[in-house]
Structures are given as structure tokens and as C-alpha cells.
User: Which sequence fits this backbone?
């Protein structure tokens, strides 16, 4: 799961990034409002942790702007203000949850897990599409019809997770590259091709009818043909 942290306090940002990476989240950080807004508008993140008081443009305006664009990425808003009116303002602007500084790490992680479950549309640890099931806790891929299963590598898992979350929508190579490897990575499109090949072999191993189809000149989509 990829998280965007928009926080201008350097020490706070460093500490949060370290905590989240220890929990196996992929994390990108922006230190001001305009950069944070641009990153959210890329629509590649599973969750956004958004501070209210930011240089350039505040968190309230960012949340309101991205919601007006139809971007539904869950937003956890952070603020040093604890007044009820501030919380109501944040939620009315489009935030999904609200956390007041200072906060306990356990509470932050619990709220992220809850938002993550909401993002994936599930309350358990299984994602599904067609005749495949993906266990998010063990990274096991299974074919529902025959019970065959195999463990995925982290990158294979992230590719399938992203494809499943988008249903039958076509994802571009650029979207996949940024989602899996991040903005600052030097990964090229051939990395996407290589790991896509690995993932297809895993689907073939479990004898699933669900396939990853290449859409010429665009990218990839999940397709299930029950014939």
C-alpha cells in the first residue's frame, strides 16, 4: 500500500516516514501544499496523510480541491488544533478521518488500517477478481475454482493488488511504474514488463482463467472469461 505524507515539520515527517516504512508501507513525502496537491492529483496513492497547516496552500483547501476533481483517495487529516469546529471543517472539506497532534503511533496505524480496508472495499484480508483470490496478509494467490495457490513476491503482489483495485479498468505502464516503484525511482517501463511476465506465470501456475491482458499502446487490464 502506498501512502502520501504531506507534512512540513521536518522532524515529524522523518519520524512518520520511518514508522510507516517499518510497517511495510511505501511512503512518499511532500513538505508543502502545492507539491502535496500535485502528488494527490496523480491519483496513485491508497491513502493520504494530510497536515492542515502547510506552506502555500492549507490542508483544508487541498482536500476540498481534490474532492471537487472526483479524487476519492482516503484522507487522514493531521492538526495541532483539537477544537470541534476545526474537526468539522476538515471533515466537511472531504477528509475521511481526523487525528490531533500529538498522537500515539498505535492509533495512527489503526486508523490507517481502517482506511486501507475501506479503500480495498473489504473487511477481511482477501481481495478477489474473477476466479482468483489474493490474501493481503500472506501474499498468497489462489484460484477459487480449483484451490491451487502460490506465494507472490512483493512486486507481483502489488501489481495484482493495484489491478484488482481497479477492476477491469486499463492501467497505463506509467501508472503502474509510479504506483509500484514511486516517483523518485529510476525504474523504467521494462521493469513493468518483467514483473508483469512473472505475475502472469503465477496466474498460469494456479490455472486461473483470470488473465492480465496487454492493451496495445496503453497498458494492462485484468480480464476474466468464464467460458
Assistant:
Amino acid at each position: 500500500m502506498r501512502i502520501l505524507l504531506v507534512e512540513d515539520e521536518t522532524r515529524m515527517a522523518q519520524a512518520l516516514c520511518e514508522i510507516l516504512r517499518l510497517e511495510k508501507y511505501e511512503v512518499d513525502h511532500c513538505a508543502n501544499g502545492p507539491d502535496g496537491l500535485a502528488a494527490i492529483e496523480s491519483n496513485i496513492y491508497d491513502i493520504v496523510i494530510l497536515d492542515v497547516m502547510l506552506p502555500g496552500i492549507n490542508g483544508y483547501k487541498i482536500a476540498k480541491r481534490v474532492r471537487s476533481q472526483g479524487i476519492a483517495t482516503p484522507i487522514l487529516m493531521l492538526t495541532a488544533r483539537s477544537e470541534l469546529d476545526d474537526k468539522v471543517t476538515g471533515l466537511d472539506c472531504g477528509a475521511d478521518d481526523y487525528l490531533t497532534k500529538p498522537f500515539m503511533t498505535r492509533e495512527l496505524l489503526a486508523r490507517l488500517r481502517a482506511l486501507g480496508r475501506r479503500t480495498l472495499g473489504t473487511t477481511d484480508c482477501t481481495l478477489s477478481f474473477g476466479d482468483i483470490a489474493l490474501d493481503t496478509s500472506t501474499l498468497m494467490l489462489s484460484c477459487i475454482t480449483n484451490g491451487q495457490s502460490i506465494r507472490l513476491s512483493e512486486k507481483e503482489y502489488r501489481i495484482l493488488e493495484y489491478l484488482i483495485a481497479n477492476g477491469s479498468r486499463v492501467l497505463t505502464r506509467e501508472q503502474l511504474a509510479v504506483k509500484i516503484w514511486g516517483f523518485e525511482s529510476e525504474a523504467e517501463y521494462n521493469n513493468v514488463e518483467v514483473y508483469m511476465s512473472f505475475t502472469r506465470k503465477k496466474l498460469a501456475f494456479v490455472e486461473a482463467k483470470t488473465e492480465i491482458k496487454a492493451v496495445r499502446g496503453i497498458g494492462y487490464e485484468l480480464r476474466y472469461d468464464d467460458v
